[in-house]
Amino acid sequence: MVFFADPRHLPDGFLPVVTLSSLRSLFLLALFAIWGLLFTPAESRAQGISGCKVERAEHPRIEIIDASHQRLIGTVERPVQIECDDVQLFADTVDLYRKEGRVTAEGHVTFVSGANRIAAERMEFDTKTKTGTFYVASGTSVIRQGTPGETPGGQEPYAYFWGDELHKIGPKKYKIVRGGFTACVQPTPRWEVSSGTLTLEVDDHVLLKNAVFRVKGVPLLYMPIFYYPMQEDDRSTGFVMPTYGTGTIAGQKISNAFFWAMGRSHDATFVHDWFTKTGQGLGAEYRYQLGGGSAGSARFYRLSEKPITTTVNGVPTTGQGEQSYKLNGGLTQTLPGRLHLRADADYFSSLRTQQSYEHDPYRATNRRRGFGANITGNWSEYVLSSTVEQRDTFDNDTTLVRYGSRPRVAISKGERPIGKSAVYFGGNADYSTFIRKTIDKDVTVEDRGLTRFDVSPTIRVPFTKLPFLTVNSAASWRGTYWNESLDVTPAHAQIPEGIGRSFFSVESRVTGPVFNRIFNTDGNGYADKFKHVVEPTFTLRRTTAIDQFDRIVQLDGTDTIVGGVTEFAWGLANRLYAKKGSSREIASVDIRQSYYTNQNAARFDQNYQSSYQSSPSKFTPVAVLARFSPTRKVQGSIRTEWDANVKAIRTIAASGSFTGRFVDGSASWSQQRVIPELAGFTQAISSHYFRSTTNVHRRRNDLGGMLSMDYDLKLDRFLQRRVMAYYNAQCCGVALEWQTFNLQGSTAGVRQDRRFNVSFTLAGIGAVPNFFGALSGQQDRR
Hints:
The protein is mainly β. The chain has a domain at 2-234: lipopolysaccharide transport protein A fold. The protein is 4% helix and 60% strand. It is built from four helices and 47 strands. It has a 26-stranded antiparallel β-barrel. The chain has a 15-stranded mixed β-sheet that branches. The longest helix is centred in the N-terminal third of the chain and has 14 residues, at 22-35.
């Protein structure tokens, strides 16, 4: 038994297709309406048809056969025409049988209701049992009424049906004998389904027996039973179209999916993947949407792999079969008491499976997995947050570093003035139980976890609020306690001995003087006016001495604060605004750098990407960030860090995107350079990557394609190349995908995986890719 579901409300990731509710529209709007023409036993005149109007001119001619039999006769040019509300019936001859309660029509029988039409050679109807038959019937119907452009191709599709006999056999039950249907209303349909018997239950389902699916008239698939659900809400439970593909690792692959419309606010999808080389996969996805900011989804997938033989450098290697799984999902939930729950999961059991099967380069090269949950609440100026999480980073297939918290509870008090003064008071407190482990083959080889309590009250005084000059000064005290510390031996082993730390910090931040200038234009060009703003900033901070810094277990930025240090930071921002109706930023350049009296403090500055890799220096690198957006459809950015000591660029990255009428795309480039003078910038850890994605499509989006690539400029090789093309007509569509994935350096066992996937879509018969991202768009991970 095969189910096909209407996919208009299927989960994200399903390929958009035209819906095939043609049977439902056809029979609900057409057949039910014509049977609903309640022909009452006729009187001696044709006007006896209850609630209906018969066109009276020269035709139709009325014959009284006997007291209970009345005949309306028309011609081809002027047939009998009966109108009931918005329903019309045309025929050459209509006979009304009073005693029998029977109506017949012959010759060019046509029924019209809006855009729906049925034609037949003959019709018989019993007004007492409200059953009857169309003979040699066919018709067309609009599949759905909606907003133009909602369907691929930008047009509302029609359905065409036919049958030797069309019977109404119950209040909501109909049967077509030796007939079929298609959503391609054209001389040679692209596809059609024919059946010896087709049974319809209104608002429930359509059942076909001995059905044959044809493409361009060629029989492609025989189905003993074909079941099509068609509930009123257009969210139907059933199977969707399978997808097919091939791959170097997986071999031939077929993906099937079953969609379960559990209700208007939640649904589930079950998938099965069959790989000829590697095995089979089973997965499920659940989604819900409750409104008010409460929504969530969860996806679970299990892959059962058999032993695989691969050849690397001419040497065949047989890998061990593996059972692996992955879990992805997230939710946001509103709770009582002004609380909000958020949770996420991106967890996989096998790094090799992740690298071997994923289609998205980010996910395929991602060595991190984990899950977490957070509850947040705010009451006036107070905010409470509690987090539980666990994250793993793989060093190789068996060794990983695990970090997280169980739990981490933080409370903060927003700044408020003290009384009626201009002095503001705020603070933060944090209690954390950290997870820090190194695990090899499921055995913990190092555990650096501990518990920490940290509190930091702050007093801030804004000395001036001039529009061109702002001076803010603040003083804070910070106290921290760890339940474990490092010993004083050269090995610095972690021991269960508590340690405390406290220090004062005073800082003053000056913004300005701010200079700006407005340039007026004639108002007929790019903008009515431009505004250039120059904004310098200066920060001076002093931190008192911190004793026993070397004995603190350094897990995050709180632990790496260096005491007895004076910091001076400067920055300069240039911004250009354009106003044409509304004002927006079209370009900006931000520059900043810091100086520390203690060179170790500069190495722990988290505001700079390359701080931890650099050699000790009192100066941080000069960070430059430039952004531009000449139009709302074009934007880009460049970020770099320049080392003033060796006069060299440490890192540089650029990205941009554009959106056009027919073409849109994005590109990113990044490089971490080799600097022999700096210990942390060796050839081994340098990198150089380029990535781009381009989409081309027609205005109606019925024809399009995508090209994406990831290129390793350092090693001069493609990481992946992907080409995808699709075509969506009024009644069907096809999507093709070709991808090569470089797996050198991974644990996949082959150097390159060549993949091909294809998906066919018919009106109302959705298709779903597998859970590894085949035939789906890639996320932008810049």
